[in-house]
């Protein structure tokens, strides 16, 4: 059974709205599906409950963590297996990849750099978010050009 991206998005959005109403969960504006923020909240929630610390959490994650990141991972894994596209690949240097990943997530948290969050904030009328979104787009274009010129 094939589902179009539009249908999947409509089903996901409707389901999220219904669950929000059912469980009376009211996330802060522009929290959306920000991968950086949800990862931070998941890690901080686990650390807080294991070690009794008081690391910062969004109000929606105080009682139970938002498991968006886990859901996206499991959904992608199921999709890859269902379409026979799952392949394990070794990167050229896993340590550098790990360090770069940590840097990306930290800078995303520092600058509010999740594109989904920036788009939601722009929709709320935040001009700084619009500037950030344009800068992020320009950075991706410039970095892609540099990478492509160097590797082709």
Automatic annotation (TrEMBL):
<feature type="transmembrane region" description="Helical">
    <location>
        <begin position="127"/>
        <end position="148"/>
    </location>
</feature>
<keyword id="KW-0472">Membrane</keyword>
<keyword id="KW-0812">Transmembrane</keyword>
<keyword id="KW-1133">Transmembrane helix</keyword>
<protein>
    <submittedName>
        <fullName>Uncharacterized protein</fullName>
    </submittedName>
</protein>
<feature type="transmembrane region" description="Helical">
    <location>
        <begin position="63"/>
        <end position="82"/>
    </location>
</feature>
<feature type="transmembrane region" description="Helical">
    <location>
        <begin position="94"/>
        <end position="112"/>
    </location>
</feature>
